């Protein structure tokens, strides 16, 4: 069975307003089948939002109608963005960073010491500004530094070891003593650590993960909170299974104006501090899509802890609901709030509900059968 999508409607012709194209950054491997099909669907949705043409994957030298609007598969560096003519957040759905490491979870924590290995452009002021907006942890760019960091964290409890380039929680492990820490580090590639880094962080139990974010397309801005859910992949691993988002028209102030529950309000505040810190500490950063995963759970002493786990300035698991919400806010100018639910299900699954926006449904050569869709709840009060 061929993969299916109901996101294939073409936008109404309006070439004078520009053209939406997808782009895979140089050096980034092509995504899986479901990633590519999903990205193409997002580009079509954005073209409808902007009332533009859509022209598939960007081809250098090809003539396009009007200015280009890019939908990258990953965060761009400043050099990559400049080559594409991207100058600000109005030119793309995603983000631009001054150095590649800024787009990764490695920036979330301080180094183990002033003499620790780090990439050019590393700014220690960033971690200082974050304070308790993140969990206790360290980033390391050598196996030796990672070992020292892990031993320090083990004094308080188990340590979660997180390869920087892994997505959706994959590739992570938990060390509960020095022997397990050493065994895990010995298995990791030293060159990978040196080039991209490794995160070591306090391990939490009974974890809930919130999504906090903001998206902007032209003059339409929306912010949201959400709760993530987990599911089982076709191999039995626990992976991302979607998000239930509450989306409001406007910025983070509008979001906190809804007076969310205390744990959500704290998560929003932590995400805002992270967002403000990156703007302050890394010149050249800009993004039209900003998403932050915030964990809430119990630490080794049984106390509740929360903090930003990582950032995403590219299309991601919440993008389907984000774009569906933006479309409803654009079509109903009086509406202030939308509930949008994203679902990812592996294996054989029932048909998505009527009215669902299906991003992918079918076999993927890499992960097996998968269904990804978004549902917008139209009965949420618009005011």
Walkthrough of the structure:
This protein has three domains: 15-74, no CATH class; 104-203, Dna Ligase, domain 1; 206-377, D-amino Acid Aminotransferase, Chain A, domain 1 (2-Layer Sandwich). The chain is 26% helix and 32% strand. It has an eight-stranded antiparallel sheet with strand order 15-14-10-11-12-16-18-17, sandwiched between helices. Strands 6-9-7-8 form a four-stranded antiparallel sheet. The protein is an alpha+beta fold and 383 residues long.
What is the compact description of this entry?
The chain is α+β, with helices and mostly antiparallel strands and 383 residues long.
Overall CATH architecture of the largest domain:
2-Layer Sandwich
Sum up the overall morphology in one term: globular
The residue-averaged pLDDT reads 92
* Biggest sheet: strand arrangement: 15-14-10-11-12-16-18-17
Low-pLDDT windows of residues = 8-15
Task: Indicate the proportion of strand residues.
Answer: 25-35%
The first-level CATH class name of the largest domain: Alpha Beta
User: What percent of the residues sit in helical stretches (DSSP H or I)?
Assistant: 25-40%
- The rounded distance between the terminal residues' Cα atoms is 43 Å
- Would you give the CATH topology of the largest domain? D-amino Acid Aminotransferase, Chain A, domain 1
The overall strand count is 18
The total domain count is 3
SSE arrangement, N to C = EHEEEHEHEHEEHHEEEEHHEEEHEEE
Which structural class is indicated by helix and strand composition?
alpha+beta
Q: The biggest beta sheet, please? A: 8 strands, antiparallel
**What is the alpha-carbon Rg in Å?**
21 Å
SS summary, helix count: 9
């Amino acid at each position: 069975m061929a993969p299916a999508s109901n996101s294939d409607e073409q936008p109404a012709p309006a070439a004078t307003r520009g053209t939406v194209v997808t782009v895979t950054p140089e050096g980034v491997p092509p995504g899986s089948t479901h990633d590519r099909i999903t990205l193409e669907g997002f580009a079509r949705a954005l073209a409808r939002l902007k009332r533009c043409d859509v022209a598939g994957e960007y081809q250098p030298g090809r003539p396009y109608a009007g200015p280009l609007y890019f939908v990258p598969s990953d965060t761009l560096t400043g050099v990559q963005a400049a080559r594409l003519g991207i100058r600000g957040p109005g030119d793309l759905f995603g983000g631009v960073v001054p150095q590649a490491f800024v787009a990764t979870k490695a920036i979330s924590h301080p180094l183990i010491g002033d003499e620790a290995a780090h990439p050019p452009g590393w700014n220690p002021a960033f971690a200082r500004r974050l304070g308790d907006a993140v969990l206790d942890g360290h980033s390391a760019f050598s196996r030796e530094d990672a070992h020292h960091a892990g031993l320090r964290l083990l004094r308080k409890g188990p340590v979660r070891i997180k390869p920087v380039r892994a997505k959706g929680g994959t590739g992570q492990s938990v060390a509960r003593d020095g022997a397990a820490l050493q065994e895990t580090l010995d298995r990791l590639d030293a060159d990978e650590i040196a080039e991209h880094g490794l995160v070591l962080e306090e391990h939490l139990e009974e974890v809930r993960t919130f999504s906090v974010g903001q998206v902007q397309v032209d003059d339409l801005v929306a912010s949201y909170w959400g709760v993530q859910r987990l599911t089982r992949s076709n191999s039995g691993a626990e992976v991302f299974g979607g998000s239930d988002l509450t989306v409001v028209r406007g910025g983070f102030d509008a979001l906190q104006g809804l007076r969310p529950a205390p744990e959500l309000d704290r998560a929003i505040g932590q995400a805002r501090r992270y967002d403000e810190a990156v703007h302050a500490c890394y010149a050249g950063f800009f993004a039209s899509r900003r998403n932050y995963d915030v964990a809430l759970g119990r630490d080794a002493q049984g106390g509740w802890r929360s903090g930003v786990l990582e950032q995403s300035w590219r299309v991601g698991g919440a993008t389907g609901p984000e774009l569906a919400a933006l479309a409803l806010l654009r079509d109903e100018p009086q509406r202030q709030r939308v509930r949008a639910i994203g679902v990812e299900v592996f294996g054989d699954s029932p048909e998505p509900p009527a009215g669902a926006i299906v991003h992918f449904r079918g076999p993927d050569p890499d992960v097996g059968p998968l269904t990804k869709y978004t549902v917008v709840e139209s009965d949420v009060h618009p005011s």
